[in-house]
Design a protein that fits this description.
heterodimer, A: 267 residues, alpha/beta, six-stranded mixed beta sheet, four-stranded antiparallel beta sheet, 12 helices, B: 295 residues, mainly alpha, MetI-like fold, 2 domains, 13 helices, 77% helix, disordered N terminus, binds adenosine-5'-triphosphate, binds magnesium ion
């Protein structure tokens, strides 16, 4: 790579003071295909950061690297450092990493054999963490309140989670992540399978949740990023091209590729 | 113009209706041809077997040939029943299931987890070959392994071993196929909560695929429940109720074979077959029901 290009890239990447999470030279390769290339970036606490970029640019790959999901597959190699509150996540157990950084997927995926109640506390149940009935009730109510689902389901907590609508299921999945009281919530296009009304609900929710959590959101939808994110990250072909406050990036993109993407020239 | 067009369309739909009708009649005829053998068999079994069916038939052991001969001479119902066969079938099938289910599940899970590995391919092929091995050959193998070396004589354990080997390929396949149908997203949801892999298998995959696994197990049981040949070489048969897995044991199909060879007992063939057929049908229907409810 040309050193000149490197310099340019760095200029377009915002420095975050006291980041809650830092990626240092993160690369991820599927066999020989390097999908994320040497990404270094910090994330601001209690904010929504949007990861944007055309399809296949490595957004999901980057997000999944953050809570070490790639370790489950033998053909994926991750290099670089991920620092959470000053601590390298490779020095923590995967359960700890994933407790502190919850993940929400593109398609709602509640556990089909579990009730709404059990879905919320699935993180405890499946890890064999014993809780008293009162504690469980509290966690379920608090988490469902947080995702504004409580009033809709409080009378059917013991029905299967899969009976809910797509939007409700997705909020249930967010509640499942919140139940573990994470510091960071990673969301991979959480609204792409939902209708506009359900999408609006989730967007409102994310804005509300940033008061207590740090949110990293992969999205295809530029309008969504503009509506709810504080910071935006633009990726192209596995590289981090530009990182800035969302307002700045949308009004005054520095890199030509960002500009072309934001004006709909490709993607 | 418009009229002409209309009539053209009408003609067309008319011939289409006729074709539909011919097709429907064809389907009905072939359906009847397909199901008539099973209806004829069940009808025959009921007509010839109902006279012997009673409570005694289920709770008494088999009569000896002399008792049977006397009652036939007096025009009475043959005394006794096939309780030794019913209990033997129960014992051997249960034991076979206890052997085959864990091995089959674990192998199936291994295949699912290691789709691409060479060893998985080898195991899959062996399992397919096993499915095609004639049951009498499996009986011979169980004879060589178990009758000769483990129980030093004919035994329920030997019979169960043969049946378990027969059940294995079906359980392995159905386990692998069931797990393949579970969306990866469900697995990842659990892993993203930091759940260790063995817990994902035990608490997510098995409960989610439960009905699929159960269907496979029930079908494999219904397949071996009527097996006769391998049991002749292993369990041998017994005229008394036996619960000791190291002793010779009877089974319903073994009794049917014995009745066939004894002119005085021929009447018992029909009632025994009726019972066996009923059990197999029940297993099939239950597993179909479970499979259907899954969708
Ligand atoms: N499991 C995988 N095995 C091999 N290659 C993969 C795998 N997942 C993704 N890739 C490759 O990695 C690159 C980045 O994929 P990724 O899913 O991260 O993109 P994305 O930005 O999330 O795209 P989209 O917007 O379509 O979700 C692509 O070239 C893709 O083909
Ligand atoms: Mg993606």
């Amino acid at each position: 790579m040309l050193p000149e290009e490197d310099k340019n890239m760095n200029e377009n990447i915002l420095e975050i003071k006291d980041p809650v999470l830092t990626l240092e030279g993160l690369s991820v390769a599927y066999d020989t295909n390097v999908a994320v290339k040497n990404v270094s970036v910090g994330f601001k606490k209690n904010s929504v950061t949007a990861i944007m970029g055309p399809s296949g640019c490595g957004k999901s790959t980057l997000l999944r690297a953050i809570n070490r999901m790639h370790e489950l597959y033998e053909n994926i190699e991750t290099t670089g450092k991920i620092i959470l509150n000053g601590q390298d996540i490779m020095d923590m157990s995967t359960i700890k990493v994933r407790r502190r950084m919850g993940m929400v997927f593109q398609r709602p995926n509640p556990f089909p054999t579990m009730s709404i109640y059990d879905n919320v506390i699935a993180g405890y149940k499946l890890n064999g963490i014993k809780l008293k009935k009162g504690q469980k009730d509290d966690i379920v109510e608090r988490s469902l309140q947080d995702v504004t689902l409580w009033d809709e389901v409080k009378d059917s907590l013991f029905k299967k989670g899969t009976f809910l609508s797509g939007g409700q299921q997705q909020r249930l999945c967010i509640a499942r992540a919140l139940a573990f009281s994470p510091e960071i919530i990673l969301l991979d296009e959480p609204t792409s399978a939902l209708d506009p009304i359900a999408t609006a609900k989730i967007e409102d929710l994310l804005v509300k949740l940033k008061e207590s959590y740090t949110i990293i959101l992969v999205t295809h939808n530029m309008a969504q990023a503009a509506r709810i994110s504080d910071y935006s990250l633009f990726m192209y072909l596995g590289e981090l091209v530009e990182y800035d406050k969302t307002k700045k990036m949308f009004t005054n993109p520095k890199d030509i590729r960002t500009e072309e993407y934001l004006t709909g020239k490709f993607g | 113009m418009v009229k002409e067009k209309d009539s053209v369309i009408k003609d067309h739909s008319g011939s289409r209706l006729l074709k539909d009708k011919i097709f429907l009649i064809g389907i009905i005829i072939f359906s009847v041809i397909t199901i008539s053998p099973i209806l004829l068999i069940i009808g025959k079994l009921i007509v010839k077997g109902y006279r012997q069916i009673s409570l005694d038939f289920l709770i008494e052991t088999t009569p000896n040939t002399f008792e049977a001969m006397t009652s036939i001479a007096n025009g009475e119902r043959i005394p006794g029943g096939i309780a030794n066969g019913i209990t033997g079938t129960l014992l051997m099938v249960l034991l076979a299931a206890v052997i085959a289910i864990p091995i089959g599940l674990i192998t199936g899970i291994y295949l699912y987890e290691n789709q691409e590995k060479r060893l998985a391919g080898v195991i899959r092929n062996i399992s397919d070959i096993l499915q095609g091995v004639p049951s009498i050959v499996l009986g011979l193998i169980a004879y060589l392994w178990v009758v000769k070396h483990v129980t030093q004589g004919f035994s329920a354990l030997a019979g169960s071993t043969a049946l378990a080997i027969m059940m294995l390929p079906m359980i392995v396949r159905s386990t692998e196929e069931t797990f393949k149908m579970i969306p990866n997203a469900i697995k990842e949801a659990a892993l993203a909560l930091g759940v260790p892999y063995y817990r994902v298998i035990l608490q997510i995959l098995i409960p989610t695929g439960f009905s699929g696994l159960l269907t496979g197990i029930l079908l494999s049981i219904s397949r071996v429940i009527g097996e006769t040949a391998p049991l002749m070489l292993t369990a041998l048969g017994s005229s008394v109720i036996n619960w000791d897995v190291t002793k010779p044991t009877s089974s319903i199909p073994l009794l049917i074979w014995e009745f066939y060879n004894d002119p005085n007992m021929v009447d018992l063939i029909w009632s025994s077959s009726l019972l066996l057929m009923g059990i197999v049908l029940a297993f099939n229907l239950i597993s179909k029901q479970i499979a259907a409810r899954r969708r």
